[in-house]
């Protein structure tokens, strides 16, 4: 009895999607299933990680022509690995499918129907035209739109990461369960921060989704005396990016670290007071997705300074477990930073502790075990 997870993620835990795959694997293991994962690890064709056997069907994606070719050949590569797995382990009890190319989706759907196997799609995003230079004509945008509107259909079940996606798929008549970002709270060790300096961190890819420029400008709007109490560490952007945002103005309290390993980001979050994030609330990508970095920060005892997007309003309370920014403008962020500066160390640590409690209460995978069992086995 095993669950087959098929995913484009770099399993075992080299990206946010792989972490989500891993937590679902832990849920299935607690329900008594073995787990086999087929993903896109560029460094290892197969292996074992925390009891999960994994296989990779990765191929290099350099250039648009190669990407298109790999997309078309995906189904055949997936089929070959599946045949080996089924020969050794028999048919899966459940197929868990992330966002994969059409050829893979159709293969898994037909196989599940033929063999009367439950198939569940894990839906975590829906792009907006503003994310791409070519807007609604961008290839990734077109593929995602086709997946969500055409390819995900009965008899598939759906895990939806947000209420937006839950409502969309439910209206299509698909059985849907909302499962937000899930992590293993026991893998995170928040640190007790002392001292008067407030450490703020950003980690991510600002050009894609986040309004980091507005955050940097907001920091620049503070007076020199206000900034004396703060440090702003940026992971994922370099000094040139910061200088462009500030018109080459030098602010020593802003430190750009460039791209770093995920482990370094986790350590930085655990040693920081707040993680900063601004996104446009009304774009489809922010409504449909859920900011993984917010949950990762809270798991590390690092509270959020952010505006309310996606379903964050269900969990975040201003000055209790977070600092809420009114909107995604630099002016609103400046006001939020000034609110933070007025807090003493004890008050900051209380907000941090509450953020960590919120993460454990709502985003630990263990709280979803019984709900997932009822969903996939009914």
Automatic annotation (TrEMBL):
Pfam families: Glycos_transf_1. GO terms for molecular function: glycosyltransferase activity. It comes from the Bacteria. The keyword Transferase applies. The keyword Transferase applies. Residues 198-357 form the Glycosyl transferase family domain. Keywords: Transferase. This is Glycosyltransferase family 4 protein. It comes from Mogibacterium kristiansenii.
